[in-house]
Fold:
Amino acid sequence: MSGRNRRIDPRELKRLSILEPQKSIGAIAVDWAIIAAAIAASEISGNILVYLLAVVVIAGRMHAFGCLVHEAAHYRIIKNRKRSDWMSDLLLAWPMLATVDGYRQNHIAHHQHANTDDDPDWTAKLGMAQFTFPQKVARGVLQLVGYLVAINSIRDMVHMAKRMSKNDRSTRGYKLLRLGFYVAAAALFSLLGIWREFALYWLVPFFTVFCLFLYVRSVAEHFGNMDYSDELTSSRTVYPHAWEKLFFAPHNINYHLEHHLYPGVPFYNLPELHAILMRDKAYAGKAHITHGYTTGLPAECFSPSAPLLPSHHPVSY
Structure:
């Protein structure tokens, strides 16, 4: 029996891996409903503060969409894989300028070769200043400001697009259908005269706060005071504060260590999986667990003694 199987009864793991499609579909519906409610509240109020709050809320649901695309990449949405991919593309990935299969290719390779030179995520971030730790607090703050003014967001999007295009295996028919989706959306926006609303409630959140949330989570998963010599210490689980769940950790994405160990477990069962694993004293004593995205994570990533321009990167194992 492997080390991973010794941590949990295979029967329990099998139970936790059973898909409950209604939970995933319900999550998608709720996320879209929250976006609609945020837009309605902002438009009805006409208040700039309500608008800014709406931007943050919408960005949080965009992050939630990204987390569900991640679920789709592991075929954890519904049982029929083809239908799952099409549904997830239409409702989650395409609106976020992504594709499920494109993300899947990159992400599965990340799982197979986590934090090594064969991990596309690792190699893409290797040497990048924003993923080099420890940092001075001032440098970290500048990174976040860079996302809020969209400079860093555009940089990341361009970088990601270049990476994904190298391994694009989508068919011509798929590309035409995706293009048709965007053309139809543009035609609908023109017909309804809502380009202003599209810019205010989709483009602004997307290129600012959403990308900031994505960056913070990306750091939290594998960077900052990590020990890459062991699978229990090379991925981080975060115990988020209640409000952080809405923005930094939607759909239990904070249980990243557990996900790396058992990627077949869908998001709604990750808390139970975590609780089971924590019964093992050896696991609980070694697992890298951080308390809070805005408290514990900064404490692990920032240091007054860090160089202004960090030059050292964590070593891969």
Q: What stands out?
A: Residues 93 and 99 are 5 Å apart (CA to CA). Strands lie at 237-239, 289-291. Residues 195-222 form the longest helix (28 residues). Residues 313-317 have pLDDT under 50 and may be disordered.
